[in-house]
Amino acid sequence: MLAAAGAMLAVAGLVTGCTAGTDSTSSGPTNNANNTETGETVRIGWSGPAADHGWLGAINSAAIAQAEQYDDVELIVAEGTNDANLQISQVETFINDEVDAIVLLPTDGAALTEVAIKAMEAGIPVINVDREFSSTFAARVTVLGDNYGMGVSAGTYICEQLGDNPDAVVAEIAGIDSLPLTQDRSRGFADALEDCGLEVSNRVAADFTVQGGEAAASQLLAAAPQIDALWNHDDDQGVGVLAAIDAAGRDEFFMVGGAGSKNAMEAIKSGDSVLEATVIYPSTQGADGVALARLVAQGKSLSDLVEQDVPTRIVLYAPVVTADNVDEYLPTAFTS
User: Fold this and answer.
1) Could you say which of 152, 160, 260, 262 has the lowest number of CB atoms within 10 Å?
2) Which stretches make up the Periplasmic binding protein domain (predicted)?
3) Separation of alpha carbons 129 and 286, rounded Å
4) Distance separating alpha carbons of residues 274 and 266, to the nearest angstrom
């Protein structure tokens, strides 16, 4: 209870503007209309998982690139890791170094919650990216991709193509089934399909890797001699999925990907692949976290909003990319 109360007071202090670059006697944030202008220099700690996946690599590089756009940001980058204990020690180092803000994509949200609360209690705003903490006291701002929305977008697109065929066979290749994000994607997909009278006929789970995607797709194709549409949750594992499809000589269906890799978009643009669309899961989340950390630490807000403070929760959109709009999204796509 004391930890929660302390964190609540820390959040209150951060929201009222008692952070770097603000006047503690002011009634609200400063200079909202000029957020791009150089302000007081702030030191931001960045910690994320190991870049062992195309999307995670893009998250890291985008965060660093975003910080380089600001003359008033010093980004302190911790080595990427999948070890929760090492990441905890990285955050503790940020706390000891008295950084002005921390942007954290936790390898495990629950495991990093306690140390994030510790940072908040120390008056350091934490920007939580992608994988949520298990307490609202652990972050000043949470930036998330819309996993449920990804499923809805994929299902809605498939409904638009197959909705007049109630007997259509829809298949799904998920990511890691034990992860809440995978469960959310599948739930959104099923809900969207239900609206047009369709359902998933064949489903397998992979592991977000090329090898796992190829193995799962081979299993699915062997079990389903006829498919009309396939949704694959992740474009990195989609490299393996497409390899399995090519090896099986199957092309009677169309495929929708997930995440928005450059590879997938180029295949969509070519028109020579079963891959017809992909659903964006933004790899800009780390960059957004850095931008928001700067605003919070300088006592600023989002200048296009009337609200005086940066929102506590931001969920990013999950648009569908097709041949019609692929050129709009290619510049920010990541390489699998």
Assistant:
1) 160
2) 44-300
3) 6
4) 12
Tens of pLDDT along the chain (336 residues) come to 334 444 443 444 443 333 333 333 333 444 445 787 899 999 999 999 888 888 989 999 999 999 999 999 999 999 999 999 999 999 999 999 999 999 999 999 999 999 999 999 999 999 999 999 999 999 999 999 999 999 999 999 999 999 889 999 999 999 999 988 999 999 999 999 999 999 999 999 999 999 999 999 999 999 999 999 999 999 999 999 999 999 999 999 999 999 999 999 999 999 999 999 999 999 999 999 999 999 999 999 998 888 889 999 999 999 999 999 999 999 989 988
Does the predicted TM-score (pTM) go above 0.90? no
Residues in contact with 113: Cβ distance below 8 Å, sequence separation at least 6, in sequence order: 133, 134, 135, 138
Separation between Cα atoms, residue 322 and residue 325, nearest integer Å: 6
Phi, psi of 44 (to 5 degrees): -120, 125
Q: Which residues pair with 76 in a beta bridge?
A: 45
What is the rounded distance in angstroms from the CA atom of residue 236 to the CA atom of residue 255? 14
Q: Could you tell me the CA-to-CA distances from 21 to 8, 18, 276 in Å, in that order?
A: 22, 9, 48
Say which residues have a Cβ less than 8 Å from residue 36's Cβ, sequence separation at least 6.
none
Nearest to 270 by CA among 228, 230, 242, 233: 242
- How far is Cα 163 from Cα 84, in angstroms, rounded to an integer? 44
Q: CA 84, CA 105: separation in Å to the nearest integer? A: 11
Where are the alpha helices (H) located in 173-309, listed in sequence order? 180-195, 210-223, 235-248, 262-270, 285-297
CA angle centred on 301, ends 298 and 305, rounded to 5°: 170
Residue-level length of the chain: 336
Tokens 């990541």 belong to residue: 334
